[in-house]
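Q&A FORM
Asked by: J.P.
Topic: structure of Kinase-like domain-containing protein

PROVIDED:
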Amino acid sequence: MSFRSSIKCCIGDLGLSQPASETSFNNEIYGVIPYVAPEIFNGAVFTKASDVYSLGMIMWECTTGCKPFADVEHDHTLIYKILNGKRPEITKDTPECYANLMKRCWELDPTKRPSIHEVGITLSNWDYLYNEYTVQFKQAEKKRPLSPFISKVSSINSTSSLSFNEYISKEYELDINIQSSTIGSSHSGGIYTSRPLSALISTVNESRKHKIEELDIEIQDSGK
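REPLIED BY: S.T.
REPLY: Here is the structure written out as tokens.
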């Protein structure tokens, strides 16, 4: 990530791309399983629509303060469940408009996801227009229980006397503390760095093929 002079965060890499040096030499799929769109597991290429799916996962992370699927192993079983519609559980304190946009980004069919332009317009409307959506966000903040870490974030954000570098240092320190506090509830097999996924995807495909063959046999037996 990088910062512009206006203090806006710019996402430079979602960790989904393969090394530039290998782009033309193999068909290996790289990524972080919770952020990879389902169609990629089915052999499709990364597109703007698959990026929107990843954005939906980041939206969930922002509203919960947790990484998606942190409590399970990131293996072929998780890929199989994602392909069958499994998504992170949306918390009750999430504003309805936010949850609806998130679910649209998570659509199994990439053609049903909003474009990034549509997402941008929607977010701008929430930010600049005082309307029913503003009320939803304010109500959500009242419902949301404040952990000591969230309270600490609020105190950091309200300290206007901090220099930019001091602010970033405090945010970094806070992030480390949060990760340390959640380490007990996270699965040791949860991997949030980009890695080759083709072998796991092949395992999923073999498993699905085997299940289809078993189903065909059952249908044939029942017809006798």
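FOLLOW-UP: The chain has two domains: 12-145+194-222, 146-186.
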